[in-house]
Amino acid sequence: NLTNTDELTEMLRNQMGRHINTDSDSELLLNVFAEGMNRADKKGSMVEAVFGAMELVMKECKGGYAGMFLINGVGLVWDPHGIRPLVFGTRRTNEVDRMDQNGVPLTPAHMATSGKTLDYVMASESVAIDTLRFQLVRDIRAGEVIFVDMNTGNCHSRTCTPKPSAAPCIFEYVYFARPDSIMDGVSVYETRLKMGEKLAIKIMRQRPDHDIDVVIPIPDTSRTSALQLSYKLNRPFREGFIKNRYIARTFIMPGQATRKKSVRLKLNTIKSEFAGKNVLLVDDSIVRGTTAGEIVQMAREAGARNVYFCSAAPPIRYPNIYGIDIPTRQELIAYERDEDAVAKKINCDWMIYQELKDMEDAVRECVTGTNDALPLFDTSCFSGVYVTGENIDDDYFAKLHNQRNDQAKQDRNRKRALPPQSNDGCESVNNDKRDGSTSQGGDGCESLTNDRTTMTTTTTT
Questions:
Q1: Which of 326, 231, 338 is nearest to 282 (CA)?
Q2: pLDDT (tens digit, 9 = 90+) per residue, 187-245?
Q3: pTM, rounded to two decimals
Q4: What 3-state DSSP class applies to 262?
Q5: Distance CA 224, CA 237 (A)
Q6: Crossing angle of helices 256-266/290-301, nearest 10°?
Q7: How far, in Å, are 70, 405, 427, 435 from residue 438 at the CA level?
């Protein structure tokens, strides 16, 4: 998730004398933090040393990251830009007067003097906090560092960057987060209802004479948006696809053939919901278009008269550099294509994307309580605007393309294949390591590639 890894590696090696052993962003973050701790006043407090080190991390490390360290009895959490979600919660270890009836500390100052009366939990989503029966306190703010001294039980908070700018990733609301999560004070479920409503309004505006018979979601994430869309269009909502829950997300799988095969393994149709009907399929987003194309074909094979398609997210035309494996531009179906061209590519009769402004408004309109309106989102994969200042024409993106494109991933997978073992890359079928074990064809082993070619064995007396 760091966008200046080359500069950091050079700085750590040449200026700070540190060894970098991997290409992991986490190793760079840890080394910068360790350098900051080394510079701290050894006679000063641990709290000031930690916050000082984190100021160095946020000054030097560019990108979108939320992290947590456990260091010799202390806990540390930070989030420099608020791009990736991070929340924290508490629960009482015993009754204390400085909390409300739900067990939430009344002020940060109370956490700093809690003295082992509170337990703390950090998570990317509030559902984890609910499950553990803690109370959600709030999101960790952009540029904020939370330091938990596990020796004293006190928790300290400080903003460690001079100009924090919150820009939460809007793709979390569309796709990644669970619908029962609360992020930045906003219900993910409510935002998806709003997205479905706004998408329905666009359909009625562009297709006022539509002949949609039924609205069918692509499981699972799009269900909430599709439900509200069907209500707004006054058309029945039906489940037409059943999902195999043991297949991973297809859009991040390497190789087009693998992705296409996995779609068929992942979904199966309920044919009665398609037969003879004009079907509107609703998905949360379209990345490469592999899933969308196969799903449209499955709907036609199930007997649909016409197949329409809509996306609760705008067209994805740019790579994501803040932790989502969205591929290079050339592999994105919306790259240099409008709605009609995408419809032709996935073989549907027409399709409609959500407007970016409508998606942003859907989230903002769901802000409740005392939380300020969200002024900025990370929408880089939709707009090409990167909150950390990168430009799509930078050399960084060319490097990213060379690392992320399908061919590069397939080449890496081939290099990671099982290393040659005894007998030219095969192991004994019975894995017998004893001397004098009975040999079978090929010294008691089968090729890992299951090669059936005939082998001639010459015996020397």
A1: 231
A2: 999 999 999 999 999 999 999 999 999 999 999 899 999 999 999 999 999 999 998 87
A3: 0.78
A4: helix
A5: 11
A6: 40
A7: 52, 47, 14, 9
